[in-house]
Amino acid sequence: MTYVYGIINDGMRIESTSYWDSPPARQGLFAMTGNAGAWRLLVPDSQCRALPDMATARHVDIETGVLCNRRVATLWFDDGTATPFRMLLDQRLFDRALAPSTCRQPLLVYSRDGLQQEHMIRRVT
Questions:
Q1: Most buried residue among 19, 20, 55, 122 by CB atoms closer than 10 A?
Q2: Tens digit of pLDDT for each residue in 1-30?
Q3: pLDDT of residue 93
Q4: Which whole number is the average pLDDT over 72-88?
Q5: How far is CA 55 from CA 24, 87, 109, in A?
């Protein structure tokens, strides 16, 4: 599974992208892209109902692992409760590898309507 979509960057921010009409977006799959010291989570139209749950986060923790022979990453939107919002992403939808240096980098959350939220990545394990 390889998907190609274009992104025009303005530093950390996304000026435009063709992701919104790509096969993964139509399938409801989130994507992660990085540029200029920030990560950007792309939220497909069908998943925008998750935005309010993400918005309560104080920071985001990322846990990497393997599930069914696939590299995955769980994003924990830590809001200080016992049950923070979390999502499991296939790392094939990341445009670069996560590293421990990802800590203390911004996570910008985008929908088709543009930048929706800004968070800080606290740790990557």
A1: 19
A2: 556 788 999 999 999 999 999 989 999 999
A3: 87
A4: 92
A5: 23, 14, 10
Q: How far is CA 74 from CA 78, 85, 113, in A?
A: 12, 10, 24
- Residue 2's Cβ-side half-sphere holds a number of Cα atoms within 13 Å equal to 0
Residues across the chain: 125
Angle at 116 between CA 78 and CA 33, to 5 degrees: 80
Strand pairing partners for 65? Answer: 72
Token pair recorded at residue 28: 């409801």
Phi-psi region of 58 (alpha: psi -120 to 50; beta: other; left: phi over 0): alpha
3-class SS at 46?
A: helix
- 2 contacts: CB under 8 Å, gap ≥ 6: 92
Element containing residue 52 per DSSP (H, E): helix 51-55
